[in-house]
Amino acid sequence: MLKSLIIQNYALIDSVEIQFFNGFSVITGETGAGKSILLGALSLVLGNRADTAVLKNKEEKCLVEAHFSIKNYGLKDFFKANELEYENDTIIRRTIAPSGKSRAFINDEPVNLNILKELGDFLIDIHSQHHNLLLHSGNFQLQVVDSFAGIGELLALYRQKFSQYKKIQKNLDELQADFVKQQSDYEYNLHRYKILELANLEQIVLEDIESERDKLANAEEIKLALAQAYLFLAGEPEMNMLSKSKEITSQFNKLTPVYKTAGELAQRLDSVRIELKDISDIIHHELEAAFDNPDALQTLNSKIDSIYGLFQNFRVKSIAELIEIRDFHKAKLDVVENFEFKIGEIKKEMELAESELDVLAQQISFKRKDAAPRVQEYINKLLRMLGMPNANFVVEIKPAELFLNSGKDELVFMFSANKNIEYQEIAKVASGGEISRLMLTIKSLLSRHSNLPTIIFDEIDTGVSGDIASKMGQIMQEMGQQMQVISITHLPQVAARGKRHYVVYKSDNQISTTTNIALLTDEQRVEQLAKMLSGEALSNAAIENAKELLAGAGLI
Question: Which end of the chain has the least Cβ crowding within 10 Å, N or C?
Answer without folding.
Answer: C
